[in-house]
Amino acid sequence: MPKMKPWYTxxxxxNNAEIFIYDQIGKDxxxxxxAAKPFVSDLNKLxxxxxxxxxxxxxxxxxxxxxxxxxLLRHPAxxxxxxxxxxxxxxxxxxxxxxxxxxxxxSQMMIHDPSGMVIGTAADMQKMIEELxxxxxxxxxxxxxxxxxxxxxxxxxxxxxxxxxxxxALEWGFATDxxxxxxxxxxxxxxxxxxxxxxxxxxxGKTNLTKEGDSMKISLELIxxxxxxxxxxxxxxxxxxxxxxxxxxxxxxxxxxxKAEGAEAERKRIxxxxxQSMPGHDALIEEMMFDGQTTxxxxxxxxxxxxxxxxxxxxxxxxxxxxxxxxxxxTDNADSVNDDHLxxxxxxxxxxxxxxxxxxxxxxxxxxxxxxxxxxxxxxVKVLNK
Length: 386
What we know:
By secondary structure, the chain is α/β, with parallel strands linked by helices. The chain contains 15 helices and ten strands.
C-alpha cells in the first residue's frame, strides 16, 4: 500500500520554519488526514524565531483544529499566516493563531457554526448541544483575537456561514493585510457540505480551481464555458429539448438495453462452454459455465488439459499400481502377425496403427496402451486368450 501523503509539511531552516496545511484537518471516515497529535509533536520540536504558516484547507475536525490552534499559540515563535487558497471552518480557527494574517486578493475565508452527529436518547442529544455551544464559544474567542467585531456579530456571521474575500476579511479584522493574488488550487470535495460556496470556487465558475496535484475535473458545463465551439460541434443535429424532456425515460431505456445485452452475452458464453463437454469432466464444465468469465475457447483448453492429466494418472496406475497378476483378455487381433521380435515400443506402435478396436479400447490414448503392454512384459498382468 502506498504511503499516504500527509496533509501538512513542516520544514525547519536556521531561524525560521515553514508549515503547509494543504488538506483536511483530522482523519475522516476513510482514514485520510492526520490527527493533531503528530502535528503538535512536530511543532514542539521547532526551535526557531519565526514560523510562516501557509493554509489551503476546507477545515475538518474541530477538536483537532482547536488543539493545533492552541499549540501554535503556545509556541514562542512569531507566526506569519498566509491563505494560499481557502481557510474554511476549523482551518480559519487555526489561522487565528498567527500574529499576522496575509490574504492574497483571490483567496477566501469562511466561518460557520460547528456541527456534530449523535445517535441516542434525548439526553445524549442535549449533551451534544451543550458541547457544540462550548466549542462555538471557543471559536468566537479565537476570531476575536484579531477582529474587533462584537461577539453577537461574529455569532450571527457563523450562523449564516459567512464567506469572506480578502478585502472583506481585512475590513472585518480577520486579516491584517491583503497581498498580490497567487496561483491557487482551492476546490475540495468538502465544498458540497456547505451552503454558500462562492461560484468562483466551484466547477460552474470560470476559475474552476482544483486541488493541487489532482487533475482538473472535466464536465459538460466546464467544456461549454471554456470551449463552446467543441460543444457545438459535438451536439450538431442533436435535439437537446427532446433529451431534456425525456431524459428519465432515455436513461431507463439505456439501462434496460445494457442489461439485455449483458444477459444475452452471458447466455452465449454459457452455451459456448457447454458445447465443449467431454465425458468425465462434467463437474469442470459446470464450474466454468457459472463462473461468469470463462469463454468457450478457454473452456476447450482447460478440458484438454484436464483430460491429459486424467490419462497420465490412468497410465501411471496401470504401470505402477496394478496387482501382481491381473487377468485380462488379449488385445491382439486374430489375424495379427508374430511381431514379438520387435522392441516393445515399435511392436505396440505397429499394432496401434493397424487396430481401430485397440484404439477404441484405450480411448485413443497410446501412452496408456504402451504402459499396459510394458506391465504384461514385466509379469504383472496375465493375459487370457479370447
